[in-house]
Specification:
This protein is mostly helical. It folds into 2 domains: 15-67, no CATH class; 91-289, UbiA prenyltransferase (Tetracycline Repressor, domain 2, Orthogonal Bundle), CATH 1.10.357. Helices cover 73% and strands 0% of the residues. Helix 5 (91-110) packs antiparallel against helix 6 (117-145). The chain is globular and about 55 Å long. The protein starts with a helix and ends in a 5-residue tail after the last helix. Mean pLDDT is 76; it is low at 28-36, 40-51 and 57-74.
Length: 294
């Protein structure tokens, strides 16, 4: 089967699911608000595209007025926070999680005794939950520090803080809440894993600042995205504590491979979406310094 056939099949299934979803909106007790959520989460694109989607669905050029019910009001208040955590863009969670998965497989392979499959499964469920929450906290922290820059970049000017849906103070509180929840989950991990996580936490805090002082902020982001391989290796096996043995060297090689993957991914991402706006706003990145011909 060719890739074009696979793409066509996926597109057909996606359109069928979208059609079913839109039909269900007609039976919603708050159809306007349901379509608002659809335009935010299902139609994952720039604000201009989301507005056109809302206009097509509602016959209005602006986002719908929310029903006065308390349920809809509370849901409306939650939407900007969900956007801050990038819940409408779950791909980033997968990118955070893959190094954890890679590390789990490595630890299972090098451990002298067989690690019970259930232990590996439960550890990875915990890792995935940590990724979702840590990533949300990191994105919120990044948006809080980047609010002035985000207003100057087309892709980011409609983020919740930049557009005024969430204040900087509220964002700081939300970051703290997510961090506390993530730390509580991390407390189930071995002490050696927590110690290995301290450098990672420092890099998460420093990354938004790196865009202001170096043309290579992706060098910091690469470690943020790939450090999960160390977390998972340390969690599932104690074979990585000896700095001179094979498993430790294998773990460092895995970290490096994930690091290169993350740096290249973000460099390509920035080059195709943000490079022109980044140059105007003064944002530093590899894509800006090595732009090359378009």
């Amino acid at each position: 089967m060719s890739w074009s056939c696979i793409d066509s099949t996926i597109l057909s299934v996606s359109r069928a699911l979208e059609s079913l979803f839109l039909k269900s909106l007609a039976q919603s007790p708050s159809p306007d608000f349901s379509i608002y959520l659809y335009s935010i989460f299902y139609h994952n694109g720039p604000e201009e595209e989301r507005s056109s989607t809302t206009k097509r669905l509602l016959g209005k050029s602006t986002l719908p007025v929310l029903p006065p019910s308390s349920r809809s009001f509370l849901l409306a208040r939650w939407v900007p926070y969900a956007e801050l955590s990038r819940l409408h863009k779950p791909t980033g969670i997968y990118y955070f999680y893959f190094p954890f998965l890679h590390g789990s497989l490595l630890a299972s392979a090098v451990n002298p005794t067989t690690i019970p499959p259930l232990e590996v499964l439960m550890s990875n469920l915990l890792f995935f939950a940590l990724c979702a929450i840590w990533r949300g906290a990191a994105c919120t922290w990044n948006d809080t520090l980047d609010v002035d820059l985000d207003k100057q970049v087309a892709r980011t000017r409609n983020r919740p803080i930049a557009r005024g849906a969430v204040s900087v103070r509220q964002a700081h509180i939300y970051t703290a809440v997510q961090t506390i929840v993530a730390l509580r989950l991390a407390s189930f991990l071995p002490a050696r894993t927590l110690y290995a996580g301290i450098p990672w936490l420092a890099l998460v805090i420093l990354y938004p600042l790196a865009k202001r002082v170096t043309m290579y902020p992706q060098a910091v982001l690469g470690f943020v995205m790939s450090w999960g391989s160390i977390w998972s290796c340390m969690t599932l096996s104690d074979q990585f504590l000896d700095f001179t043995n094979g498993p430790f060297i294998a773990m460092i090689c895995l970290l490096c491979s994930n690091y290169v993957w993350a740096v290249l991914y973000d460099m390509i991402y920035a080059h195709h979406q943000d490079v022109e706006d980044d140059k105007k706003a003064g944002v530093k990145s590899i894509a800006v310094v090595h732009q090359g011909p378009r």
